[in-house]
Amino acid sequence: MIEAIHQDKLKAMYLFGEEISLVDSNANYVNEGLSRLEFFVVQDIFFSDTCRFADVVLPASVLKNRMAHKAYHCQVLRAALSV
Predict the structure, then answer these.
(1) Closest CA to 32 of 23, 21, 42
(2) Long-range contacts of 36-39 (CB under 8 A, 24+ apart)
(3) pTM for the complete prediction?
């Protein structure tokens, strides 16, 4: 993805739950690429270094909340199917 940004093939990106500059061995190259994006959305439970480059930062839920959310939707679905 970062290579595509540097080649002007990728203009926007949505990143979920990853500190992308720590994953790559060349953090400067990654950070330069992120700063070149025209639109960048990050969704994470923490405000990471990657969030500094984002145009929009969205909150993410932790697993416990996701499981509760999923259980609620399963209950709603069961109720709808039983009607």
Answers:
(1) 21
(2) 36/5, 36/6, 37/5, 37/10, 37/11, 37/12, 37/13, 38/11, 38/12, 39/11, 39/12, 39/13
(3) 0.70
Instruction: Walk me through the domains of the chain, giving residue ranges and CATH numbers.
Output: 2-82 (3.40.50.740)
Tell me the pLDDT tens digit for each residue of 30-79.
999 999 999 999 999 888 899 999 999 999 877 655 555 556 555 655 65
pLDDT tens by residue, 3-14: 999 999 999 999
